[in-house]
Amino acid sequence: MQSKPFKDLFAIPLRNGLTKPKAVRGAGTKMVNMGELFANPRMTNVTMDRVPLNQAERNSSLLAAGDLLFARQSLVFAGAGKCSIFVNDDEEVCFESHVIRCRLNRNLADPDFYFYLFSSFTGRKLIESIVEQGAGASGIRGSDLAELQVPWVDLAIQIRVAAVLRHLDDKIDLNRRINQTLEAIAQSIFKSWFVDFDPVKAKITAIEQGQDPLRAAMRVISGKTDAELDQMPREHHDQLAATAALFPDAMEDSVLGEIPKGWTPTPIRDVAEVVKGKSYSSKDLVDNDQAALVTLKSFERGGGFRMDGFKPYVGPYKPEQVVLAGDLIVAYTDVTQAAELIGKPAVVVGVDHFKTLVASLDVGIIRPLNKRVSRQFLYGLFMTDAFQSHTFAHTSGTTVLHLSKEGVPSYSFACPDERLVSFFSETAEAMAMEKQRLIDQNRSLATLRDALLPKLLSGELSVADVEIPA
Q: CB of 428 within 8 A of CB of 373?
């Protein structure tokens, strides 16, 4: 395999992006900032900040499909030189000054191939050879990136290798979208049943109009017409009818306002316990161990679990601070300016590279005390606007936000029939199991993707031997 100076593969010279002060941002052309670069390895129609451009800036700084984007600076060593690829966008897109644009000569280099190269262990080592570490940040210079000696193989081989790796990434992206859909469906059901009380209101309306209230609730729950309900298999029809029958047919006043008749205003402390995580010292954080802390980085902004927030840990902990797959956790601290984490819930996802997961002090573990609620029910409850408003009202701090000890236990909700909670939980749990299966599959696909490129580059594996998986 040959090596070439990276600059020999360029279609045009490297270029740093534009400097645009906050005062002028908000309208105009979409701009890739560092946040988008780090969050989106493959950029397609990403939501971004907007800036005004003059014609000269448009001529020099718009992105084209296949452009590689490198992080010129980062607060951490591992982020310096991070590479993403601009796939496409429905609008014109430019890039900011902390980003280096690299446009390759398509007759010599396939952009996807070099994106995967720089995303691999091999490519990362190449980038690290030019990273300069400063007092407050690390970074790379475009001149050093241009001179970097990179592997080069025949273009046809590059395209074939990239096709295999891109297919794996496409499958990973599809699985992620499916999981997002499953999450949205579960939240939609929860909101309809337990926040908007749609089946109850449908029964009330049906009674007022002299119609069958049970049938009305069945239509709302299933989203089916009467004709479609009649065509359902008897077992499914009867189960749907049993679920619909559990919803009351009247509302009543309560301390929470109007709620379904018979549902009880209930504080979280009556149905679940909150266990705070472990306070730890930096000396207990290591590069690798069988145990790891679940931290703030384990939360998606807006709620949900992230797989890249673990910190290997060797310190002590209590048995009740151990979290298992399926456990419900809540963020008790936040350092985001928009309070995007505080009070947000996540359901812990099973992992295979740590034997034990321990909640950090920034995390609260929520465990149901009885069958009146389930973890899936509480997750849906904690994702509601009402719960988020409540926890924010119990938050203090400026730079670092802290949720008070009583923030979660004091929240009251309309507690429904236990059997109704069970019906919802079974549905949500089935979706959660499918999400876990797809997460496990994605881990396997990512491992395969990351292992293929070094073997192909070293000659250990021939591109002709690689079949694109279905």
A: no
| Average pLDDT score over residue span 437-464 | 82
Q: If you search the block for the tokens 């089916």, which residue do you land on?
A: 224
Q: What is the mean pLDDT of the chain?
A: 91
**pLDDT score recorded for residue 467:** 64
What is the SS3 assignment for 339?
Answer: coil
Distance CA 275, CA 405 (A): 10
Hey, what are 162's tokens? Answer: 């990239």
Q: What's the rounded Cα separation, in Å, for the pair 244 and 260?
A: 13
Q: What is the pTM of this model?
A: 0.81
Full strand arrangement of the beta sheet holding 93-95: 49-51, 29-32, 93-95
C-alpha to C-alpha distance for 69 and 92, rounded to whole angstroms: 16
Helix (H, G, I), strand (E, B) or coil at 224: coil
Task: Report which residue type is found at 372.
Answer: R
Measured between alpha carbons, how far is 331 from 300 in angstroms, rounded to an integer?
10
Cα distance between residue 14 and residue 146, in whole Å? 8
Helix (H) or strand (E) holding 415: strand 412-415
Question: At how many degrees (to 10) do helices 375-382 and 418-458 cross?
Answer: 80
Residue 459 has pLDDT above 80, yes or no: no
Concatenating the DSSP letter of every residue in 344-380 gives -EEEPPP-SS-SEEEEBTTEEEEEESSTTS-HHHHHH
Cα 328 from Cα 164, distance rounded (Å): 37
